[in-house]
Amino acid sequence: MTAASAPAAPRSAVARRGAGSAVLGSGRLLRLELRHNAMLWLLPVAFALFFYNGYREIMALPPMWNLRAMTVQNRLLLDLLIPVTGAAAWMGSREGRRGITDLVAVTARPRWSRQLVIWAATTAWAELACLACVAVVYLITARQASWGGTLWWPAVVSVAGVPTLTAIGFAAGAWFPGRFVTPLVTVVMFFGVAYGTQAASGDHSYWQISPLTTGAVGIGAAPGVASFYPYLPDLSIAQVMFTVGLTVAVLGALGIPVARMRWLAAVITVTGLATAGTAVALAGTGRLDPHGMIVIPALHDAASDQPVRYTPACSRTPIPVCVNPAYAGFLPAVTAAVGPELTEFAGLPGAPARLSQVPLVYRQVSGNGVTVGGIGTGPAAFALPDQVPGWLGTTDAEFAAQLDEGLGLHLASHVILGDGPASAGAPSQAELAVIAGSVRFPPSVESRDLGPLYGQVLPQPGSPAALAARRFAALTPAARHAWLAGHLTALQAGRVSLEQLP
Amino acid sequence: MNVEISDLTRRFGRHQAVAEVSLQAGPGVLGLLGPNGAGKTTLLRMMATVIPPTTGHLRLLGRDPGAYGPRREVRRRLGYLPQNLGYYPGFTVAEFVEYFALLKEMPAARVPAAVATAVERVDLSGKARAKLRTLSGGMLRRVGIAQAIVNEPELLLLDEPTAGLDPEQRVHFRTLLRELGQRATVVVSTHLVEDVGAACSQVALMDQGKIVFVGTPGELTARGTEHGTGDAPLERGYTAVLAAARA
Amino acid sequence: MMAVAVRLVRLHAASRRLPAALALLAACAAGLRGMLYGHWDSYGALQLPLIFEAACAAIIAVTAGSPFGEPERATGRWLPYLRLGTAVTLTALASGALAAAGTGMPLAGGFADIVRNVAGLTGIGLLCATLLGAPLAWTGPLAYMVAGAYGLYTDWHPPVLSTPWLWPARPPHDAGGALCAAVVFAAGLAAIALRGARERPSGDGPG
To answer: Pairing with A445, which of A3, A345, B213, C143 sits 20 to 30 Å away (CA)?
Structure first.
């Protein structure tokens, strides 16, 4: 130690401190903490978990903004939770683990302020991980999606959830700096967050406040949600309120042991808890709207009830099929599945000039049950099923089967029977045979699936009408079209027998 | 006077670690001597505002540290090196000292220069960028001293500061102590009587929570001329005072 | 001689905070039993015990750390056996406690699932303890738990993740999954017995 070369020190190094100096000092502290934060070391674990779990699931989904963005919200926080909460608990327990408590306790900076800087550094890295994961998914989806703008609310909820994870982990580590606390608080958080998604029941469940929940519990991320109508931010707003409130409450509680700041910390904690509690109460007032989204009356903007304006994507088939452009990628599959029917019925009396997709209608029933149906305004309207290829493992064959059952049969029965069997009385066996012969059900559709339709629009299996249907099906679509052009009126009048069918 | 202690007592449960201690100290170096368990570290921790006294009066730098505002002011002017120094192994020497400079709310613009000065004064300029986990025990102790002096404290409290230092470094450290003592009140708790003899202008000897001697090193030495045991004069004075206090 | 051995085992257990670890394992078992009273859907019923199994594995891995550092390593031949015995005993107790918690309850997967998952996750934790140090040994089992929970989810929502190295997603009596878990467990035991948990000069990991 070179005492002789030591510079002459001023009487006191404690000069006047201004606000600028305090900010600069906090900034320098933050920079130090950012460089030495445990979250930095756990970023590879976070990315690995997201890539292995959420990213693969999301990328396997069709490139629809609603599906992918909502699935990001379902998956991201759960994949990041272990490294984020664990790193935060680790950093919170740092002073206790290092035996440095006394040394930092005698410094002038309040403990609360010191802890907030450490928490902020941990959260900054964690948010970076979250934003990077969101950015990758969103950038890829932006290149692949056929229509629609970026859906931001699911990402906002995920980003708002990260500070909550770090705050709870950090507080647990700071209050209980033992060797078992970090893994235990991480597991408890994982269980709590995952449990929240299981516990929700119905559209007014308080549990749907969980930031992992997108839309109605019984539906979640479905193609029909937020396609024809805007994504409702009601539940997302409540979820952000909840996570922000919880974060503020936990960080405020850190300041309660500090004597001078106790009242301020208590006020902040109570405010945070009140905000979170209000959000939970708001979630309990939710109801499922017909478009598959949760409406919270106190947060709802009526302007978002208006349908989204779009130019439909249409096929070049004898009867054009027009879908919402978000579904444009499925149009070839649609026309492939029902192409023969479109050729067969084009131009016939009662056949629609074009088929237009209409939105699905969702209705909440007891528990988590939700019924899904098309609004069925007539022969020119159809609803594409939610089970599109790639969603929840739906294959192309399963999609085609649903189309045949739905759209193909719907078209055939409307043209042959008019406005429906109920209005014309019971259909004749010849009509049933023609309908059955016009729709090509793939092998995956078993006869038992069609049971409710026998006698309504399809002949009984093994009956003479079923045999006649097979003969009719053996004709080409053009031949069937030609026969129907000449005999449809007589068929509908009941003047055609089974033996007279080609 | 920078340190004014009057009838200070600290209890831990039923154990009285410090018992009605009264002491005053101005600029200079005060050595705190005593056997293990005498209460030196507890007294030092109270002066460092780590723990509050159970009873008694304590004024540091003309302020009552019992209130938040004055305590914060004291901490801005305080340097403290505990007996067991914890550290963050991933920090470099400079970062560790900078960290404490910022926690002591030094004006941010002055921090870099203050850090460089403190690191230089403990002879670790060549290791400023080395990670703490790579340093020897003695070097870590010097890092601890550096963080204690970075803010040019008016009250410097050092608990066993020379533990782990080699003889050459101990000589330099005593020189530093004398220099610091010209402007500040330095309280050094140590077992090494030669450190006290070389650097301290005043000595306080504690035993069983009480102060049994306050005076100059020369006065302590004089107490050992007839009844003390030990190899050095100061040691003999030390043992003589303790024996008298226990008699 | 036996008394000395018992005394040594007791002191070793105390140094690893085994009483606290045992209490936490019991708490995990109690927690699992409490949760089994709830209604869980298809894959949720399998994910639930996995969370508690991972918590047990993390606790066991964290106990592998030594508070003494180098002085303990520079001793006689008993230390590897003590480390091995501690890990095996805790794994067995954790498996037994969880199985007992599931007795008479609708525990999906059963005892075979518990033993396989606890052993495999503990193996991961012990390997992490050897590489990263005991305080950070929880990262491996808990990260693997997330992957395993997702694997179970894909059993109901394809595409299925069907590698035996993701044994929690395999059926309870699947030989491939059991073999992989056993290999990892054996590797973890060997690592912790021979090398012990990594010690850093300052005693802990980053931060």
So the answer is: A345
Does one domain contain both A340 and A268? Answer: no
Q: Which residues contact A281 (CB under 8 A, 6 or more apart)?
A: A206
Enclosing domain of residue A342: 313-500
The domain boundary residue, chosen from A234, A266, A300: A300
Q: Of the residues A251, A276, A300, which one is the last residue of a structural domain?
A: A300
**Domain-embedded: residue A327:** yes
Residue B156 has pLDDT above 70, yes or no: yes
Residues A268 and A123 both lie in one domain? yes
Same domain, A336 and A432: yes
User: What integer pLDDT is reported at residue A7 of this predicted model?
Assistant: 38
Contact status, residue C79 vs residue C72, Cβ threshold 8 Å = yes
Contacts of C200 (CB under 8 A, 6+ apart): B89, B133, C133
List the structure tokens of A250.
Answer: 């936990």
Number of domains in chain C: 1
Residue A2 lies in a domain: no
The 10s digit of each residue's pLDDT in A153-195 is 999 999 999 999 999 999 999 999 988 999 999 999 999 998 8
Average pLDDT estimate for B176-186: 90
Residue C202 has pLDDT above 70, yes or no: no
Q: Which two tokens stand for residue A210?
A: 């969980």
In the stretch 35-54 of chain B, residues with CB closer than 8 A to chain A read: 45, 48-50
Torsions phi, psi of A453, nearest 5?
-90, -15
Handedness of CA C114, A168, A232, A136 (dihedral sign): negative
Can you give the residue range of the structural domain that contains C39? 2-194
**Sheet of strand B55-60, all strands in order from the earlier edge strand to the far edge:** B15-25, B3-12, B55-60
| CB-CB contact of B157 with B119 (8 Å) | no
Calculated CA dihedral for residues A102, A106, A111, A115, nearest 10 degrees: -60
Largest Cα span, chain B = 57
- Cα within 13 Å of Cα(A18), Cβ side: 2
Looking at the structure, tell me whether residues A356 and A281 fall in a common domain: no
Residues of C in contact with B132 (CB under 8 A): 202
Q: Edge-to-edge strand order for the sheet containing A313-314?
A: A313-314, A321-323, A355-357, A381-382
Q: Which residues of C touch B133 (CB under 8 A)?
A: 200-202
ipTM: 0.90
Give chain A's contact residues with B (Cβ, < 8 Å). Answer: 1-3, 5-7, 9-17, 21-22, 24-25, 27-29, 32, 35-36, 94, 98-110, 114, 259-260
- The DSSP annotation for C93-157 comes to HHHHHHHHHHTTS--TTHHHHHHHHHHHHHHHHHHHHHHH-GGGTTHHHHHHHHHHHHHHHHHHS
Residue A5 in any domain: the answer is no
Look over chain A and give the mean of its residue pLDDT values, rounded to a whole number: 86
In a domain, C203, yes or no: no
Report the C-alpha gap between B24 and B26 in whole angstroms. 7
Q: What is the pTM of this model?
A: 0.86
d(CA A147, CA A112): 48
Q: Which of A56, A91, A183 sits opposite C142 (nearest CB)?
A: A183
Shared-domain flag, residues A202 and A273:
yes
Chain B contact for C70, CB < 8 A? no
In a domain, A476, yes or no: yes
Q: Which two three-digit tokens encode residue A480?
A: 């069937």
Spatial contact of A81 and A189, defined as CB atoms under 8 Å apart: yes
How far apart are the C-alpha atoms of B182 and B156, rounded to whole Å?
12
CA B118/CA B148 separation, integer angstroms? 9
Structure-token pair, residue C155 = 């059993």
Quick one: pLDDT at residue C203?
47
DSSP summary character for residue A405: I
**What is the DSSP track for A86-104?**
HHHHHHHTHHHHHT-HHHH
Q: What is the pLDDT of residues A236-266, one digit of tens each?
A: 999 999 999 999 999 999 999 877 789 999 9
In a domain, C199, yes or no: no
User: Omega into C159 within 30° of 0, i.e. cis?
Assistant: yes
